[in-house]
Specification:
Layout: E1 7-15, E2 25-35, E3 41-51, H1 60-66, H2 70-73, H3 79-87, E4 93-98, H4 101-107, H5 110-113, E5 118-120, H6 121-128, H7 137-144, H8 160-175, H9 180-188, H10 211-216, H11 223-237, H12 247-251
Parallel strand pairs: 1-4, 4-5
Antiparallel strand pairs: 1-2, 2-3
Helix pairs in contact: 6-8, 7-8
């Protein structure tokens, strides 16, 4: 009897905007990544996409990104009529995945996913591929050149299936470097940024900046910056390469 394969289903959404319930889904795309008998993960199946009636006009500012118009979705089904069957496929998946998954999670609620775990390929890329010049879905695509990715199938960008297809190659490669549990753990934490984003130390690795600059980032409004600064602070307190106390003993 053939065993039920483990599936990570990669999801991408196009929406009317960033903040539900004010905004809603206009398209969902997916692509599966499956654990093979040899222990490697690979893309499987054709994936697909479905247009969704958002129940409200699509603002021109978002039409300009994904080019989905009101008339394209006028006869489409509503989100709750299509979401569950896509988000909870059989055989049951071990996780859902998306690039910057916190965006998809706003719309793909726990009630629709049966509380399934998520893998964020953006957060995992920060950990696994810190030398990348950038961490957008498309930047990783062209920097890494994943084996097997069909260029035309991954276009146009900012449509649900092509974006899910591209993300699936990042998921595959991340799963072949780290366990599902590890990727989920990284995904549930804030992003660990490899380089400083702004200011006089912009572009430097965090371990390169001095203690006074590091302390200044501990109260930043960006949760990823705060988390990264706190992580570097903990490393220095633990006696890392530049673990020299200063800046009021690194805030004690």
């Amino acid at each position: 009897m053939r065993s039920t394969p483990s599936i990570v289903r990669v999801i991408d959404l196009e929406t009317t905007g960033n903040a539900p319930p004010t905004h809603a889904v206009v398209e969902i795309g997916w692509q599966d990544v499956t654990l093979q008998p040899d222990g490697r993960w690979e893309l499987e199946g054709e994936g697909g996409s479905v247009l969704v009636n958002p129940g409200r006009p699509i603002p021109p500012v978002t039409m300009a990104v994904h080019h989905i118009r009101d008339e394209d979705v006028a006869d489409a089904r509503y989100w709750h009529d299509v979401a569950r069957q896509i988000l909870d496929p059989w055989p049951r998946r071990v996780a859902l995945a998306a690039h910057r998954a916190t965006f998809e999670q706003q719309f793909c609620t726990s009630a629709l996913t049966h509380g399934n775990q998520w893998i964020c390929t953006w957060k995992c890329a920060l950990r696994l591929w810190p030398d990348s010049p950038g961490f957008s879905n498309q930047m990783l695509r062209y920097w890494r050149k994943p084996a097997g990715l069909e260029h035309e199938r991954g276009l146009p960008a900012h449509r649900a299936f092509p974006d899910a297809y591209v993300t699936a190659f990042h998921v595959r490669d991340q799963l072949n470097e780290a366990s599902v549990a590890q990727l989920v753990e990284w995904s549930e934490a804030p992003g660990l940024l490899p380089r400083v984003r702004y200011g006089p130390d912009r572009g430097k690795e965090w371990r390169e900046i001095d203690n006074e600059s590091l302390v200044g980032f501990l109260t930043d409004r960006d949760v990823d910056i705060r988390f990264t600064a706190e992580t570097e602070l903990a490393r220095r307190r633990g006696g890392g390469e530049i673990g020299r106390a200063s800046a009021q003993e690194l805030l004690l």
